[in-house]
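Reminder: ligand-aware prediction takes two inputs, not one.
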Amino acid sequence: MRAICPGSFDPVTHGHLDIIERTARFFEEVVVGVGRNTSKNGLFSLEERLSMLTQATAHLPNVRVEAFDGLLAEYCRQHHIGAIVKGLRFASDFDYELQMAQMNKELTGIETVLLPTAAQWSFVSSTLVREIAMMHGDVSHFVPTFVVDALRARAAGRPA
Ligand code: PNS
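Here is what comes back for the chain with 4'-phosphopantetheine:
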């Protein structure tokens, strides 16, 4: 079966990569679906996020990275994707994800699988990584090295 790990990945973190790697062990094919989250202020462009994810998942042969627009459930129907896989960090993630899972199921019948995030990444979020990096803090424990470089460049006002 083909699965999708959707998100805005702005930027990709070790928490995301843990979920993608575990999904790739369960499913034959995994699409990492990079969407636009209209309620969040983006730091990296869609092209930059796609490129960082492609680099970060290059060691996983059954994983490919794609941009998606519009409804996730509709994208899954059109691309023969049987399951949405999301990571759960804490209770508020669960409340949000449960509602989306039930709505997506109602829309097209697509199933959602919720995986507990690895404990070591449970407090990591792209939002906090962006904030810390823009204030010149150290995020090297939470994201791949090339993402650290891109964040440093952005914090210094240079193109990534
Ligand atoms: O990493 P994020 O920002 O939590 O990812 C959110 C994302 C992109 C997965 C979510 O916003 C999404 O599914 N967007 C697609 C639009 C959609 O289908 N909305 C209805 C959800 S029930």
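The pocket of 4'-phosphopantetheine is lined by residues 6-8, 35, 37, 40, 71-73, 100, 103-104 (CB under 6 Å). DSSP finds six helices and five strands in the chain. We will return to this case in the review session.
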